[in-house]
Amino acid sequence: MLNLVLLSSSISYIILVPSIRSRKEVLMCKSIPGNQKHMTMDQRIIIEKRLDQGNSLHSIALQLGKDPTTISKEIKKHRTIQEHSHFNESKNKCALIKDCKKKNICEIYAPICKRMCKLCNHCNSHCDDFIPRSYHCSKLDKAPFVCNACSKKSGCRLDKAYYRATIAHREYRTVLIESRTGINISPEDLIRLDELVSPLIMQGQSPLHDPTESSGDPLLRKNALQLH
User: Fold this and answer.
1) Would you list the domain boundaries of the chain?
2) Which of 3, 57, 118, 203 is an S-S bond match for 100, by CB 3.0 to 4.6 Å?
3) Whether 168 contacts 74, CB under 8 Å
């Protein structure tokens, strides 16, 4: 954040001076060793605690010395979706049920049936105006993207999302390990695969070309996807 300082009314230019707040934020970020590329478990615990307290993503990022966008991506990537409760849930799944006043839609029990169609179990499959009810909370589309500190979560009938440090770190570790595993092949098969593929490349065949088209070797077929 910058303040505009006018040096003189007779001078036609201005100087941009960092505000006190921005200087303070810079000093705080520099004093906290948290600007590593990968998020640590301790940092994720801080994120969870601050979300539980209702802190903004900006304040969390400031404490960890990271960009707010990084915190936002971390939360959206590793949040856990909790499906809404089905206890005592209406069997009518129409989004228009509250204001619906239709009768005898199915014409099965007409004119005997006197009930409103929204009270029946069959109206959803017969009504042309049926719109499936959505259990998505629009608040999850904006910061902080989770229900950790929501005051209405206990009685809410919509799907919920929570950020939990242990789950987030476990997901991160799983992806990290899988990305570093490499090709699942024995050293012997790797040598044999090299003997099969290298001559094809020496003949001018593209590395992106499917090697199974030139050879019917089962080892090539088995590892074709890994080669690509």
Assistant:
1) 1-31, 32-84+135-178, 189-218
2) 118
3) yes
Q: What is the DSSP string of the chain?
A: -EEEEE--TT---EEEEE-HHHHHHHHHHHHS----SSPPHHHHHHHHHHHHTT--HHHHHHHHTS-HHHHHHHHHHH-EEEPPP-TT--S--BTTTTT-----SS-SSTTT--S-GGGSSSHHHH-TT--BPP---GGGGSTT-S-TT-TTTTT--S-EEE--HHHHHHHHHHHHHHHHH-----HHHHHHHHHHHHHHHHTT--TTS-GGGT---HHHHHHHHHH-
* Range 148-155, long-range pairs (CB < 8 A, 24+ positions): 148/48, 148/51, 148/52, 148/54, 149/51, 149/52, 149/53, 149/54
Amino acid residing at 159: D
Sign (positive or negative) of CA dihedral 167, 173, 174, 176: positive
* 3 φ/ψ sector (left φ>0, alpha ψ -120 to 50, else beta): beta
Write out pLDDT tens, residues 89-131: 777 888 888 888 888 777 766 667 777 887 876 788 788 888 8
Number of Cβ atoms within 10 Å of the Cβ of 219: 16
> How far is the C-alpha of 33 from the C-alpha of 154, rounded, in Å?
37
Distance, in Å, from the CA atom of 103 to the CA atom of 126, rounded to the nearest integer, reads 11
- In angstroms, what CA-CA distances link 48 with 82, 92, 120? 16, 36, 44
